[in-house]
Amino acid sequence: MAKTIKVTTDNKISIVEVEFGNYKAVQKAIGGMIESVKTQRMWDYFHRPMLMLVDEEGLIKRLPLNRTGSWLYGADKHGHQIAGDFILAVPTHEDFAAPPAADLEFIKARLIQDFDLVEMTAYE
Question: Which of 49, 68, 97, 106 has the fewest CB atoms found within 10 Å of its own CB?
Answer without folding.
Answer: 106
